[in-house]
Design goal:
single chain; about 325 residues; alpha/beta; 8 helices
Length: about 325
């Protein structure tokens, strides 16, 4: 009898857990917010996106839009889910997505054997490796531009009022994008890694690695190699390919940024020297006379931006995008 009772209890627990998962998966968006699953194509790879809009929009109604770009290992299911309702309720369309090979997005594929000749339809069958969780500045810069293109074609988005925001690694990506894509009309970067502080040795290493990759003296794409160390070792599933950052310098891109830019840093930033990253970009923009605001949130560390600093950072970002993207009455 006791064994039967335990078995029944385990069954009940399993059913309750399953129901809880189902309820969580079907939890509706906040009142007034519509969420759509969308597909964004980037260089032939399907990326998964979440598009958030105010409910009841008229077909010809055009709103400003904000694109969120995640940091290391971030996905559309994390911070963007907290941000989206606030932006939509403030009158924005909001888009979050997973870079190719991250989260729910398809992977880029690498053939493991020499490819056969394509058939009449241009198709081949190959044994391939899925390239996932790469920190690949070149590909992810293209992914962001593809997401901007997607927004520009959205019927309820005003393509002349598109802003981008990025966190951590994503902050460096949006900085580069803002300097190289004229469609960006406003930008915000929080606790952003801009690549500041890297000396000539980093460049020599990247070019040396490029030679080894090209000659197959090491993995052409990091899989066994490319793991991060030090304070970033927590991201053990991620891989870094410095070769793909050659020519992509966020700090140099700041010399070309025309769009108003907000930069938010953490006072106790522990992953980088904020003076050589966000603060340096802010100084470049100030010297050029470009619209810029620089804030340091007191008492928080890098990851505090997602915890105790979240409310203040979000308030500053909403105010910034409202000021620069929404038409004034």
């Amino acid at each position: 009898m006791e064994g039967m009772t335990r078995k029944h209890l385990r069954f009940v627990i399993a059913v309750v857990a399953a129901l809880g998962t189902a309820v969580q998966a079907q939890t509706p968006s906040p009142d007034g917010v519509e969420k759509r699953d969308v597909t964004i194509w980037s260089d032939g790879v399907r990326m998964a996106g979440d598009l958030y809009l105010p409910k009841g929009l008229k077909p010809d109604e055009k709103l400003p839009a904000v694109l969120f770009c995640a940091g290391t290992s971030g996905t559309k299911k994390g911070t963007p889910q907290r941000l989206a309702p606030r932006f939509v309720q403030a009158g924005f369309v909001f888009l979050a997505f997973d870079y190719r090979g991250w989260g729910d997005s398809d992977s880029r594929l690498m053939s493991l054997d020499k490819q056969p000749q394509p058939d009449a339809k241009g198709e081949v069958t190959v044994r391939a490796r899925a390239i996932r969780w790469q920190m690949d500045f070149a590909d992810q810069a293209m992914d962001i531009r593809a997401a901007i293109s997607f927004l520009a074609g959205e019927p309820n988005v005003d393509p002349q009022r598109i802003g981008i925001m990025g966190s951590s690694y994503g902050g460096g990506l949006v900085t580069w994008t803002a300097g190289n894509d004229p469609r960006v009309k406003c930008v915000a970067a929080q606790v952003a890694g801009m690549g500041g502080g890297r000396g000539p040795q980093a460049g020599r290493y990247a070019y040396g690695l490029a030679t080894k990759q090209a000659r197959a003296e090491t993995e052409p794409v990091p899989f066994e190699t490319g793991k991060m160390g030090g304070k970033m070792a927590r991201y053990e599933h991620m891989r870094v390919n410095p070769v793909k950052s050659i020519g992509y310098n966020a700090i140099e891109a700041a010399e070309k940024i025309r769009a108003p830019m907000l930069i938010i840093d953490a006072e106790n930033e522990e992953l980088m020297d904020r003076h050589q990253n966000g603060e340096q970009v802010a100084e470049i923009l100030k010297k050029r006379g470009a619209p810029v605001a620089y804030h340091v949130l007191k008492g928080i560390s890098h990851y505090g931006i997602y915890r105790e600093g979240f409310e203040e950072a979000t308030r500053l970002e909403l105010e910034w995008f409202t000021q620069h993207l929404k038409k004034q009455p």
